[in-house]
Amino acid sequence: IARALLAGQTATVTIEGQTIEIAPDEATVETLDAPGYAVVSEGPYTVAITTDLNEELRREGIARDIVRHLNQLRKEADYNLTDRVVVWVHGDNVQDVLAEWGDYIAREALATKVETDAPPADVDAQKRISLESGEVLLAVKRP
Fold this sequence. Notes:
- The protein has 143 residues and is an alpha+beta fold.
- It has helices spanning 2-6, 55-76, 95-109; strands spanning 11-15, 18-22, 37-42, 45-50, 85-91, 111-115, 125-131, 134-141.
């Protein structure tokens, strides 16, 4: 019924043996999002995507946040676009992210090395950030 009405067609319904025709301008069709999904409808088409985050997507999001902050640190340290750096990603609960996404982080930040221990005092720039996984100290230095 809804599909026909959304397509601009008359829908036919039989209730207790009686046939009723419903024109598109006589009814309103509303879509409700199912829990865990975002739904969009236009005309006869409906698309739903899941909004649930699994652990893999959560780790990817954290890795992307780390890259964004590291690139901001590069900018604050006034590095050239092509400068290679050593980066420090120090904090609790980032080991899983670094194990899976460490190569991506290094590549995107132009890092020759990604260290997980506390950064030394002579880094070029550093900042503490809050991520979903907890607080993380990020730092950059030219090798």
